[in-house]
């Protein structure tokens, strides 16, 4: 008879990036010569806003509402309409263009 080992749902904070490490990593990504600005936007959105990667990929500029620079409330609003969990050949299939996946 085997016994199930106890597991914990707690995350070891030592395995997470702190804000300085995250900023340094995002800066390094931004300075990449090919696609750095695009990847910076993607990873910064994941880090600061927390969507799933497939939700971030499906976002458009019109889905992001930023506050005015001098606004007291500096929270932005992200409108997540869909997710694109798969990439590659299937995504270019004509059915994909007609029937994009919807979030449940």
Write out key terms for the chains shown:
4 helices; 36% helix; two-stranded antiparallel ribbon; mainly alpha; 104 residues
Structural class: mainly alpha
Overall residue-averaged pLDDT value: 82
Output the helix-strand order: HHHEEH
The gyration radius over C-alpha positions equals 19 Å
Strand order of the largest sheet: 1-2
% residues in beta strands: under 5%
The DSSP helix count reads 4
Main sheet: strands, sense, barrel: 2 strands, antiparallel
Shape: extended
Low-confidence stretches: none
Give the termini separation.
Answer: 41 Å
Instruction: Tell me roughly what share of residues is in helical segments.
Output: 25-40%
Number of beta-strand segments: 2
How is this structure best summarized?
36% of the residues lie in helices and 4% in strands. The protein is built from four helices and two strands; from the N terminus they run αααββα.
């Amino acid at each position: 008879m085997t016994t199930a080992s106890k597991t914990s749902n707690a995350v070891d904070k030592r395995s997470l990036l702190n804000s300085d490490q995250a900023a340094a990593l995002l800066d390094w990504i931004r300075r990449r010569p090919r696609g750095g600005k695009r990847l910076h936007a993607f990873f910064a959105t994941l880090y600061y806003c927390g969507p799933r990667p497939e939700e971030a990929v499906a976002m458009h500029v019109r889905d992001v509402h930023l506050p005015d620079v001098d606004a007291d409330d500096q929270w932005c609003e992200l409108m997540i309409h869909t997710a694109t969990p798969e990439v590659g050949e299937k995504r270019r299939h004509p059915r994909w263009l007609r029937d994009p996946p919807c979030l449940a």
